[in-house]
Amino acid sequence: MKTKRQWSLPLLLGLAVLGCSSTQESMSPDSPRNRTPSTPAEFRLPVAPSKEGGKLAFDKGIAAAKSGQYAVAARYFTEARKSDPYSPQVLFNLGLAHSKAGNELLAIPWLEAFLAVQPEAPNAGAVRAEIDRLEKTCSEKAARMFDGAAAAAEKLANPAEKKHALRDVQLARAESGDIEGSRVMFKAAEGREFNDQDLSSARKRFAVALADAGDVRRSQELISKLIETDQREVWQKYFWTLSRDGRATELTNLIEKLPASMESLRSDAYYSLAQLYLDQRDLIAMEAVLPRTGSGRDNLSAWLAWAKCAAGDLAGIRELAGQIQEPDAKARVLQYLAVMQLRTGDAAAAKQSAREILTLAVSEYSWTAMESRVVAAAVLGNIEGALSYSQQEFKGFQRVGMNPPGLWEQIVLIRGLSDDWTGAEGVITKVKAIQAPKEQYTEMPWSAGWPQAGMARALLWRGHPEKAHEWYRQVKPHLKGLLLSELVREYIRKGNLAAAEQAVWEITPEDYNYGYFQSYRPANAALVPVQMEALIQLAEEHVARQSTEEARRLLRHARLVAVAHSFTQDAGELLKTVAEFQARLGDSAGAEETDAWRPPPAALKWLQLATKLSIDRYTADLENGMREALKDEKPDAVPRQISWFVNSQIVSNLMRMRALRELP
Description:
Layout: E1 3-4, E2 25-26, H1 51-66, H2 70-81, H3 88-100, H4 104-117, H5 124-154, H6 159-175, H7 179-190, H8 196-212, H9 216-223, H10 228-244, H11 248-256, H12 266-279, H13 283-289, H14 297-311, H15 314-323, H16 327-343, H17 347-360, H18 367-379, H19 383-395, H20 397-400, H21 404-417, H22 421-435, H23 439-442, H24 450-461, H25 465-472, H26 477-494, H27 497-504, H28 527-544, H29 548-564, H30 569-584, H31 588-597, H32 601-614, H33 622-630, H34 638-646, H35 650-662
Antiparallel strand pairs: 1-2
Helix pairs in contact: 1-2, 2-3, 3-4, 4-5, 4-32, 5-6, 5-33, 5-34, 6-7, 6-8, 6-34, 8-9, 8-10, 8-35, 10-11, 10-12, 11-12, 12-13, 12-14, 14-15, 14-16, 15-16, 16-17, 16-18, 17-18, 18-19, 18-21, 19-21, 21-22, 21-24, 24-25, 24-26, 25-26, 26-27, 26-28, 27-28, 28-29, 28-30, 29-30, 30-31, ...
């Protein structure tokens, strides 16, 4: 239960504007958020919440702040948050520490989160005034950086390079919303005023930046001032942004409001909506939208076929293949079908699909065709050919963004599903020889462990979870998280709940799934729902076996996993699921505690942004970084420095900050 008590908020020295002791709402020692369930030592939680550890870190932060070490203080306050993610004391001081350290962009969301958690705090007015000051400072810093980049561009001797560099800076300034500053820079570079097309282009950059930051509504206020060609680009950004952010209702409404002049974009809009439904695993809704996606239908059908693999829907995959006209897309669907046919033991059908793939995937310049040829060769037992194709693909790696290690996983998986275990291990041995001399494979973290993952999945699909588990342990952390969730389900199916639970705790937040992190979400956040879903599934199995206490224990741990990564929307929703599950089991105290840990909705968006900025390598000292870059007096290096600036995060972060104020 929440209570009121006196609390003198620890303050950072030198910030008198916020330095008022006050009576604030806090949590009593008996409140749910202050009770920390015990955690078995054998479980390696992402964070083991500890009030004692949090207090120690908090006190160290205060001590560092008193000695003027604000960056150090911020690190200690960040550590303290692990024990109580929504502590107003921690959020408040974390924001102030970053403010004093000169990290205005990062200070703002932490202070906003403090206000969201305690909107009625007695010093709320002073905090809002400090936020206004920080935002003004951010804008002034951005202006200085734009001016510095323009001054560097002016030093270029080559007129063409100079004009190009100045245009880059001018467009970036427009993107930040400073249309007037962009106009002044344009006049200096071009010697003339904006005409209608120039002004529309500048406004378009601003409108696109707003939409990209999530503020579609405010972006739409600008669109009527753009020429038609610029309007089209902004509308396309709307579709992409709403799809990315999972805002299906808004996207559907926007499609209905599409003006007649933009009718040709309707299929693009439905393409984005179909992608959204695919991400949400709503395949029925996706199939309903699919006929309206125009020329993108074949590509989406291939992704739909991939999703149907998880359900083992071979008939659905074959039906999709029959509807596709484009050869590469059809070959891609058939490669999924061939693997699933092997999984079900129909080797003859798989080989027939492989032969059909080879008649379709003939392009030497399509990565989809090359990938399909690798799979087809592996299914037909041509291991040397499959490896050769994967190496051929690497020749165009930087051009098309291909992933040879992922293909090696496919080759190993296919040989395993063909019961050619010797061949599968032979591929792993050969791949090690291929990898050894190539820095591209050994230094990039995502390139290691793929073949071993193929062996693990083949063993799992062939009903050998224990052997698969041993191979999973050889897979690098960034790959194994989602694979382990498959292993958990198989252990549960076989009734080995102890092994399932062990696998659950091998899914760590250090793992990451690079395919689905979006918006403000840090990469490792994708594994939080995976681990929680596995815990909930395991708890359901204990309920089915009438082991209610075991289920309650697992649900308490599921809560701790989510709390450690409370910045994710998915974790917040899963906490709601946990609370409802606990209530269903009669654990009202556990349900109350879980509900108390749920992120306050108003704070969540700021916590997401603050966490994103915390891991953004450009954020902490962006101005100093730009200043150092512009110290280089070599004329030929200036375009690179300006490019670095224009592609940096300051514009997008400023836009996100502004957009968050407009979001519900």
